[in-house]
Amino acid sequence: MAAFGLYSHIQSNKRRSIGLLIGLFFLVYVMTYAGALMAEALMGDASLDYLLTAALRDLAYALPWVTIGTALWIVIAYRFHQAMIDAVTGGREVTRQEEPRLYNLLENLCISRGLPMPKLKVMPDDALNAFATGLNEKQYSITVTSGLLDRLDDPEVEAVLGHELTHIRNGDVRMLVIAVVIAGVISFFAELVFRLLFQGGLRWGGGRSSSSDRKGSGGAMIAILIALAMIAVAWLLSIVIRFALSRSREFLADAGSVELTKNPDAMITALRKIEGRGELEGATSAVMEMCVDNPREGFADLFATHPAIDKRIEALVKFAGGRDPGPLALPEPDGQQDQAQEEQQDQVESAGGPWSGSGEPATGGAKPFLPPRPPIDLGGASGGNEPGPWGPHGKS
Questions:
Q1: Do both 82 and 199 map to the same domain?
Q2: Are 36 and 154 found together in one domain?
Q3: CA-to-CA distance for 147 and 263, rounded, in angstroms?
Q4: Cβ–Cβ < 8 Å for 71, 185
Q5: Which residues are catalytic?
Q6: What angle do CA 106, 109, 113 make, to 5 degrees?
Q7: What residue numbers bound the domain in which 211 lies?
Q8: In this predicted model, what pLDDT tens digit does every residue of 265-305 receive, in sequence order?
Q9: Residue 298, domain CATH
């Protein structure tokens, strides 16, 4: 069912989260059966029917252990996913004393809507981006880059915080984390199988008993192809799940930010400043999918996780009455400006300082810069007794 409004979107996210968890176990069972089928085929040739039945029997034996292992993976992700994300991004939790500007902006938004205050983290990166993570109220956190704090003014930072806060309110963050967990489990098993298969090489064993040999032959190669196809399909589905999540969540988060801040222009200018400047070096694709903007695009925009900035701004202009200033060129951060001034001063000093030892200005042949002298009126023929700069100077 498509989500047309905010309430239906939140309910849809809850249903999708449950569906994704169920889908995770289903895909893991498919991967387990494919692995069992491949193992049976590699043990020795037999008829396809026999191999399929034997793999199904192996799945029944392994089912409890696979279920426990998958559940354990979910528990680990539930408890430690934020620590893993912080390890990748370098995010650090900050207090009001450390970041009073950022903390107060977020606190005001939460108080105005009666929302619980998520944790606030800063990631040391010159990129302009932010993202929210967490699976419940005790875990929710919003991470912003230091570059975003340096380059955006208060209304724009507030708009970005409102965007991420809306993701938390709508349940988008929970659903994205679950999708990442699913992709991680399936990708792990798929990569494990393919590494064992292609790096270890195909080893046809003779471990099948003579009674098994009488079941027929010629099915091993077909069974291996079926197993590989199942693993590949399961892996592709795990990837598609992440990209199939409705991109309307970004439009709704932009609208939610405007609803919180009452300032559509701030959200628009924030998007324009972030546009093309949000790449987090070293961050995984899973982290980038959670950000305000993901500059990493899939082929032909088919697997893009975010709508284009222009489309998001077009929606804000159309439905929120904002004004689009167009692409913005940002000045250098204050730190870089200070560094440029220091480099220029070093160049002057390396040439002998502002004045060389001979008493002449060290300008490399160019005329030195001197401030203009104030005009001095020394009087004249018509000066009379008019006072000059040092008192009257006219003739008595």
A1: yes
A2: no
A3: 22
A4: no
A5: 164
A6: 145
A7: 6-89+173-244
A8: 999 999 999 999 999 988 887 788 889 998 876 544 445 67
A9: 3.30.2010.10
